[in-house]
Amino acid sequence: MESRYKILMAVAIGMIVGVVGSPAVHGHAKKKQVARVTQVRVTAKKVQGKTTKGAKVVVLTTKNRILGQGEATSKGAFTIKVRKNLKKATFKFKVTKKGYVSRTTVHKYKLPQKPVVTNPVAPEVEKPTSHPNNGQQLVTAPSGSKPVDQKTKKILIRWAKDKIADAEMNLQKANEALEELIKYQQNYFGDMTWYEEQLREKEVRLDGLNDQKDSDAYKRAKEDLEQARVTLAKVAEGYITYYKDYEEAHQLIAERQQELNSRKQDLANLLSEI
Length: 274
Description:
This protein is of the alpha+beta class. The chain folds into 2 domains: 32-107, Immunoglobulin-like; 130-273, Orthogonal Bundle (Helix Hairpins). The protein has helices spanning 2-20, 23-26, 150-188, 192-207, 215-273, and strands spanning 32-33, 38-42, 46-50, 56-60, 66-71, 77-81, 91-96, 100-101, 103-107, 130-133, 136-139, 148-149. The strands form 4 sheets. Strands 5-4-7-9 form a 4-stranded antiparallel β-sheet, with no helix packed on it. A 3-stranded antiparallel β-sheet has the order 2-3-6, with no helix packed on it. A hairpin with a 2-residue loop joins strand 10 and strand 11 (136-139). Helix 3 (150-188) packs antiparallel against helix 5 (215-273) and helix 4 runs antiparallel to helix 5. The longest helix is centred in the C-terminal third of the chain and has 59 residues, at 215-273. It is flat and about 95 Å long. Mean pLDDT is 77; it is low at 15-28 and 125-145.
């Protein structure tokens, strides 16, 4: 009897240990999440990057429409052909792998940064008096300083011309930034009147329905109208930001043009004084 009791106790203890140690009690072990997408490079037809090796990578629009998909190599690198040019678009990556927690990240398009340019002041050069000196022409510098010879004059002129070239490049970049801004507005906002017309159509459709007789259709029409209002509000907000950036871009162009004119005047003054 005692032997039978010991056997039953051993079986009971084994069952308790099995239940306590069971994954059903403790839950699943914490899964590791797939790596964040890094080293992103976007071309007209492809998107490249790096994540967890062997992971499936899906490229999506911000509204979750699939643009392309592929698989990361043993080193985690991937190249995916996409259905549209994403060089100037915001889109998403969805990365999944069996045994891992998936990850969705957003890759945002950033407008070109405004060029940062230093504005050194051209040195003041006193009008020299030239005279022959052993066959070499020298320029008389201010009292107590060394004379300025032909080599120094060339250096000063080259310096002034380099500053003109820099100013011309800065002006060109400012104009290109404005063009990019205008293209961005046209591609992602379009004509605001179209959104307003969509809103009006949905208002008319809702007015023509009876919430008692056509409850389902009325509900759908009401939801469509609310969505149209939200969309129009976002577009209006985008236009406000665009106009602000547009004014800043024009102001930058005016500043770069003024800088170029100043550099040209510096060179003209230099040539007349040396």
